């Protein structure tokens, strides 16, 4: 009996961990002046899940993830990350939270005065406070190898293509082993082949680093490859939710318009 | 009309408030630990070494021109021997620090404003912030402290080069030995000429760094904002230099020239 229990317990634990909510948003509202950008956003992100937020430009998708990392504060509602309300955090708490969250910007946001190596070393020395040069070098090479850009280690961001910059940006966020990844339109501005490569890279990295992710996009191929679950956003509200296949069959005209592109 | 004036004033007052908050955040971050020494040294090199040529040429020409302009008047008054003293006192007390600061406002404040403005536009500052690093400590504290240190040093170098320019100009028409000229210059100066000039150039340097960082760090998102940040940094820093100079002269007069 005791042996059976031992077998059941880890399974239960793994399942409970899988169902753990890492981000919980309830009735989040945000306005800039008279413009209401987020009207009533409610969602949960579970551990290990890839949630894609689909919507046209200017619908408040990026504002949602900026609220998650505390770059913006919601006007109303609660946004809990790992059970803590982001809006109520002080600077130190916010800093600690941000170490657990990776944010890939649309442009990659590489520090253009630094080489690729220095870009990757920056979070290791400033955030994780590592001092051992050989350990830092090893980590940098390992993560760059993971995104297939070890050859570009001493190049400046200005020498890289758009796709390469996104890969380096992804490597820079993953190097600190974040538990949550937020992607702001990771494939925008890239050709279809590179977009697909980036989408597959996101999926591979999620499996390798076991992150939970929110992916903001309007690229259907990216959504198809990466999403466990998709929410469709329109005019500051979530109007539909489901898997890629479920939403393909949706009757909602706005949802259908994405799939008929 | 009245509404526009009120809105303008409100915006101006808000700007003052934001600058006070920015100053408080800068000040707190100096002592927050984890000072960025390597970035500070890099900024000292960028700000100090790379501005040296410009400051040197300007100061040299100013020293040369001042002697050429002063000479006829002083010769007419029979005080040609006062030329080294006149140049030394005016250059060390006023012309050197102000000219150096104005040159640095044009070169350094605009470059800091444009650099940070462009980092803001391309989300590099946001990226630093969301990574858990401290962009204020890395970008702002290092730059402001570097300008506060390097502008006085540039000012001292500029003073020396300006006096040398004066020596060459004097030798166009008269003949004076290098040692005699510099002995006359040094003899005419004392502590009360040198110290206030260095102290006020520390404040000039601080104003240049602070304004450049504030304008760049708080620029709007959009490529146009980079130009606005750079331009506004130069104009505001130049105004601050004259404002600080006016106050410094009053304080120096009260303390040293009663």
Number of helices of chain B: 8
- What's the CATH class label of chain A? Alpha Beta
CATH superfamily of chain A: P-loop containing nucleotide triphosphate hydrolases
- Arrangement of strands in the largest sheet of chain A: 6-7-8-3-9-10
**Fraction of residues in H or I helices of chain A:** 40-55%
Runs of chain B with pLDDT <50, length 5+? none
Instruction: State the low-pLDDT regions of chain A, or none.
Output: 1-6
Beta-strand proportion of chain A: 15-25%
Apparent shape of chain B? elongated
Distance between the termini of chain B: 48 Å
Shape of chain A: globular
Quick synopsis:
The complex is a heterodimer of chains A (261) and B (258). Chain A is of the alpha/beta class and 261 residues long.
Q: How would you portray this structure in words?
A:
- The complex is a heterodimer of chains A (261) and B (258).
- With 261 residues, chain A is of the alpha/beta class.
- Chain A has helices at residues 2-19, 61-68, 91-99, 116-126, 133-146, 162-174, 192-209, 220-226, 244-248, 253-259, and strands spanning 21-32, 35-46, 50-55, 76-81, 84-85, 101-104, 180-184, 212-217, 229-234, 237-242.
- Chain A has one domain: P-loop containing nucleotide triphosphate hydrolases (Rossmann fold, 3-Layer(aba) Sandwich), CATH 3.40.50.
- Chain A has a six-stranded mixed beta sheet with strand order 6-7-8-3-9-10, sandwiched between helices. In chain A, strands 2-1-4-5 form a four-stranded antiparallel beta sheet, covered by helices on one side.
- In chain A, a hairpin with a 2-residue loop joins strand 4 (76-81) and strand 5 (84-85).
- In chain A, helix 4 crosses helix 5 (133-146), helix 4 (116-126) packs parallel to helix 6 (162-174) and helix 7 (192-209) packs parallel to helix 8.
- The termini of chain A are far apart.
- Chain B is mostly helical and 258 residues long.
- Chain B is 87% helix and 0% strand.
- Chain B contains eight helices and no strands.
- The longest helix of chain B has 40 residues, at 37-76.
- Chain B starts with a helix and ends with a helix.
- The model of chain B has no long low-confidence stretch (mean pLDDT 92).
- The A-B interface holds A 69, 71, 95-96, 98-99, 101, 103, 105-107, 109-112, 122-123, 126-127, 129, 172-173, 176 and B 34, 119, 122-124, 126-134, 138.
């Amino acid at each position: 009996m005791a042996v059976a229990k031992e077998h059941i317990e880890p399974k239960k634990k793994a399942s409970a961990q899988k169902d753990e909510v890492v981000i919980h948003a309830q009735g989040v509202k945000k306005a800039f002046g008279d413009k209401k950008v987020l009207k009533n956003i409610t969602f949960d992100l579970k551990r290990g899940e890839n949630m894609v937020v689909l919507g046209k430009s200017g619908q408040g998708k990026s504002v949602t993830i900026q609220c998650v990392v505390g770059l913006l504060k919601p006007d109303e509602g609660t946004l809990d990350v790992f059970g803590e309300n982001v809006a109520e955090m002080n600077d130190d708490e916010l800093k600690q939270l941000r170490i657990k969250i990776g944010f890939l910007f649309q442009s990659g946001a590489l520090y253009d005065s630094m080489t690729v190596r220095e870009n990757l070393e920056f979070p290791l020395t400033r955030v994780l406070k590592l001092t051992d040069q050989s350990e830092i070098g090893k980590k940098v090479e390992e993560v760059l190898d993971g995104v297939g850009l070890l050859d570009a280690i001493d190049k400046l961001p200005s020498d890289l293509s758009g796709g390469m910059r996104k890969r380096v940006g992804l490597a820079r966020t993953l190097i600190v082993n974040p538990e949550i990844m937020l992607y702001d339109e990771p494939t925008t501005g890239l050709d279809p082949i590179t977009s697909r490569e980036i989408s597959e890279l996101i999926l591979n990295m999620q499996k390798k680093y076991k992150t939970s992710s929110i992916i903001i996009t309007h690229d259907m191929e990216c959504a198809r490859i990466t999403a466990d679950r998709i929410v469709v956003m329109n005019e500051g509200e979530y109007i539909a939710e489901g898997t890629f296949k479920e939403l393909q069959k949706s009757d909602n005209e706005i949802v259908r318009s994405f799939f008929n592109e | 009309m009245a509404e526009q004036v009120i809105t303008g004033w409100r915006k101006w007052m808000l700007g003052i408030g934001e600058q006070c908050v920015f100053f408080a955040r800068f000040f707190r971050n100096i002592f927050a630990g984890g000072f960025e020494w390597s970035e500070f040294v890099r900024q000292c090199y960028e700000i100090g070494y790379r501005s040296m040529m410009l400051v040197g040429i300007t100061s040299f020409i100013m020293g040369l021109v001042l002697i050429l302009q002063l000479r006829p008047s002083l010769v007419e008054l029979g005080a040609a021997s006062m030329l080294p003293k006149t140049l030394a006192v005016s250059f060390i007390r006023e012309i050197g620090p102000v000219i150096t600061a104005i040159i640095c406002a044009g070169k350094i404040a605009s470059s800091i404003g444009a650099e940070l403005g462009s980092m803001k536009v391309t989300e590099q500052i946001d990226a630093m912030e969301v990574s858990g690093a401290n962009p204020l400590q890395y970008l702002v504290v290092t730059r402001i402290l570097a300008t506060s240190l390097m502008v006085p040093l540039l000012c001292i170098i500029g003073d020396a080069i300006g006096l040398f320019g004066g020596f060459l100009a004097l030798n166009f028409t008269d003949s004076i030995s290098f040692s005699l000229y510099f002995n006359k210059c040094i003899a005419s100066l004392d502590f009360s000429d040198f110290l206030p000039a260095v102290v006020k150039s520390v404040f000039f340097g601080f104003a240049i760094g602070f304004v450049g960082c504030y304008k760049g760090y708080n620029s709007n998102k959009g490529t146009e904002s980079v130009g606005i940040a750079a331009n506004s940094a130069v104009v505001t820093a130049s105004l601050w230099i004259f404002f600080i100079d006016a106050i410094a002269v009053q304080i120096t007069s009260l303390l040293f020239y009663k």
